Predict the structure.
Amino acid sequence: MEKYNPQEIEPKWQKIWDEPSYYKADIDKSRPKSYVLSMLPYPSGNLHCGHLRNYAIGDIFVRYRSMNGFNVLSPMGFDAMGLPAEGAAIKHGIRPDVWTYKNIENMTRQLKSMGLYYDWDREVITCHPSYYKFTQWLFELFYKRGLAYRKEASVNWCDTCGTVLANEQVIDGKCWRCDHEVHKKNLAQWFLKITDYADELLKDLDKLKGWPNRVKVMQENWIGRSEGAEFSLEIDGRAEKIPVYTTRPDTIFGITFMALAVEHPLIEKLIAGKPNEEEIRRFITETRNMSDMERTSSESEKKGIFTGEYAINPVNGKKVPIWITNYVLYEYGTGAVMGVPSHDERDWMFAKKYGLEIILVIDNPSAPLKLEEMDNAYTEPGIMINSGEFNGMENEKAKGAIVDWLEAKKIGARKINYKLRDWLISRQRYWGAPIPVIYCDHCGEVLVPEEDLPVELPDDVEFKQGALSPLSTSKKFNDVKCPKCGRPARRETDTMDTFICSSWYYLRYTDPHNGKLPFDRDKVNYWSPVDQYIGGIEHAILHLLYSRFFTKVLRDAELLDYDEPFTNLLTQGMVIKDGAKMSKSLGNVVSPEEIISKYGADTARLFILFAAPVERDLDWSDQGVEGSFRFLNRVWRIVGIFEDAIKSGVDEYDVETLNDEEKNLRRILHKTMKKVTEDLRDRFAFNTAISSLMELVNAMHTFQDKKINPDLAREVTKNLLKMLAPFVPHITAELWSKFFEGDIHKQSWVKFDEAAIVEDTVEIVVQINGKVREHIKVATGLTKAELEKLAPTIPRVQELTAGKNVMKIIAVPNKLINVVVK
RNA sequence: GCGGAUGUGGCGGAACUGGCAGACGCGCCGGACUUAGAAUCCGGUGUCCUUGUGACGUAUGGGUUCAAGUCCCUUCAUCCGCACCA
């Protein structure tokens, strides 16, 4: 047989698989469906190793499930809106669409060179008007359901990107994309009301049994639900009240001051005309000028300034000073906090700094507290004191009792709060889906009528960085009449966050050519939810939270019938090299394209799946790649050596005709079939599946200079190729075509024979006091009792236990005997 | 600070239910083939010593057990997430 030459065979098979009908997915209710999806890439221009890993993992699922009779949906597309395209326009004067489509073309070629199983007929490109028409349609749906609204707000602004960002897109005070510091700006912006779904998004995390815990915990933290109470304090001598939110109503008798956020709207009234008004204003300005990072760090010093006004504690009538502080956040709760220094760490620090009063209201039952001996707040459970009728109660019980009391007196009520904020979706950029809204002086905000969608991106724009979208420079775009009254009006010139595009693409795959609706309800309900989703952990909150939100809204709009979009989620680890993430600046970037052209896609796929478990980070090793290439050569060679035997063998034969060595090989084969099946089906343990396939190939090589039973050679080769097929589709297709009928990728998965795995005898370990002292061969399946009886007859046991008392004999069938002596 | 994950040879990793630690691969060493090399094939490869039917060994120290990488507690290290959310 000729040499293994991936450069020749891979393009040959890829051409066959590129036929549109080859991987076509169609609804077939007679078979179970399986929707396997990898996160779609941004078309940056080139595939990187992370993509390679992501799609290789997905391809194993797809091919394995396909061979197991599932009706598989495996689509691919491009998340093609976004800033880099616009950056290319600004820097090099290339039109964003031209730049994007050129990149898509190149990346599609690279994807195809990986030998992946995709139904390309379902390709989704989010920047195509046929797609963003429905992104806009969905925006309108949200609007009609009261879930999209425009408001003026203090928002995150990134100077480098020239646009606002959602809270989820600010990481440690920095822009998620360019890593530059973000600052606040007041702008009128569009929001989606994700907070309406906060509770369900939190609760339904419990339904996601197939998600990594880590991701669920991150989402839980992000949603940040807390239960407490809201009540108001009157201001001494004024009509206004200050509402506060607390999760510790049990400490309400311990209030000794009030703390307001610097943005609190009441401040103006409170400080007007005060002798130190200027000083107070200076404090407010200073605090507002601090970066978000500084302001929200628990490390920063707590500072404040007294307003000269007092509030009245509704439970005991106590007058407490009202302070303006730097540590109360305006965005959370009511922007005002009751100060209980005795039982809150931050209030403690603040009170100590400014010499404010501290009153204990919870005592430590095991060691009574003395204020003068305390150097921080007491935040443990305890017994209520100094709290009127609640004295003596356990504080946990008092929480409820006090809220009941507040509710009965109509002073306050139970309240649930979330850290989650509404999703800011306006972007002052060009390369996104235009927000389909028209502003009319007479009619106000008007949706673009459905029949006028999509609102297309114009090409007469100037690309410049600034606070306004480039769309505002387009004459064509802005020349519009009000759809309601026909008078001249103007368009919204902001576009939508690209995360909107990716929040529903997995649904579009189920019905990608639908021109009337985003997708057909029957189709979406047949294929989705996604059975297996694969992608990086970096989307733990962003994309995965937004998509869950979208799914729930679409369910409520009766466009689909389920609650959660991704039943099982696999977060693959990063690909690193020399201990660091691959990056141009470190010069440790590996190009998948080069690897593929040197060794072939099969080698690249095999290496990346073998080198580490899927969830863990993978250390790229050029030598490891060589090793995978060597293995494929070994496969090729041994099949070549078996060539004549395979051809003369038959599929049905009497295994009793095999000699001992051959029986041994057959046993290894069936053991491997069992192991690989279990690894793929139950554990996603692709690395160990491959290692056992290597063992099988090693075992085959013991016959390289020996005659082998042709029927066995046929059986082994056939099953080896089937098992390898999901991992290395090209070489297996090629070898299969030389010896067997049909297409290997349409064969059914291997079936192991449990009987072939069992040996007549098994080697067991003999231990004395837990230490291995002998290995003996015994008949397979000897019972515990039989082994216990056998133990004293073993010469080595007799030798080592002579003169000692045998206390106990432990036997585990087919495993070991342990003799305990004294 | 809080929450989570991880820690096993020179390296990537295996050991799934407590039952021979180190599968498989890389690297390294030796051998075969070769004029030579490459490739290939075969064998070896945790540490230590007194080379044995030996001792030790899965971050640390302890515990449970006939038996612990695996279960429980302690400490440490690394990574990730959250972090003034009242």
User: Anything to note?
Assistant: DSSP finds 28 helices and 34 strands in chain A. The longest helix of chain A spans residues 660-683. The mean pLDDT of chain A is 92.
